[in-house]
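W.,

You were right to be curious about this one. When I first looked at the sequence I had no strong expectations either way, so I just let the prediction run and decided to look at it fresh. Below is the sequence, 319 residues in total, followed by the output.
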Amino acid sequence: MSALKRQWFTLAIFAVILAAYLISLSDFSLSTAHSSLFKFSLIVGIFLLSGLTIDSLKLLDSIKNWQLHLWVQTISFVIFPLLVIATAILLNSNNLSNLVYVGFIVLACIPTTITSCVVFTRNAGGNEEASLFNATLGNILGIFLTPLLIYFLIGQSIELDPIAAIKKLILLVILPFLVGQLGRNFFSIKVNPTLAKSGSNWMILTIMLIAFINAFEKGINLSFIDFVYILLLSLLLKLVITALTWYSSALNSSRFNMADRKCLTITATQKTLALGLPIVAVLFANNPNLAIISFPIIAYHTIQLIIDGILIGKLQTIN
């Protein structure tokens, strides 16, 4: 029963995916505008709760841990792309369609998630403050690094509006967090950490539900071979990068404590759907195979949620 209790979040993810699939088969349809507004409200809620529960002194102390931040971003923007290229070579990229390979290259170049890495790190007993900092830093860096990496690796140029992207991060992440910090430090607003954790969990599950409903409604026209290949390759990449990150952080145990290692393992190995799909949409707007190119990002996103959900139960027992 205790093992089942530790893995409730993983089971909830499976339930969310199933529910999203069943909803997509029904007559119910999500309005793009309404789903986006609701999703953004949930993201604001998650970071408002983070601001109300995170100790400001711990946050400032965590920001000073530049070695941890450097390693998170290096894994995300350097090691991961190299791993994708090496895996494609070892598995013979000729077995993959060119469109699928391009999808994996785009996946490799995008930053970590904005919300789920923070929530998962908190649930695992990791350094939530460092995860929050790196989620924000990674997505700001991704605005500039992701287009450059994609151009370097596949020769496809892309123009993103950095001002609009930064404004979005400020409104959805930084501002709600600062409001929470002000409430905590200047107005003595106290939130029960257990209730805050539970609230964040349910909000991230709702965000996942919206994302999966949208994905299932759009549909993806893939051959069975490509479908299986993408799922297996996504699983392989997630397992390898997670193991590599976890064990490499152990070699630096003098620099990284256990909370740092948990943060590093979850935050550095996740990839954002929120930035990944818009980039693909801009890059391949007129390509009839847009859905195929997008699927590696969707597949990896799904698998990372399941793997990290399972991992949380294991990490909770390690101090």
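Here's what jumped out at me. Residues 2-315 form a domain with the Na+/H+ antiporter like fold fold (CATH 1.20.1530.20). And, maybe more interesting for your project: The mean pLDDT is 85.

Coffee later to discuss?

I.
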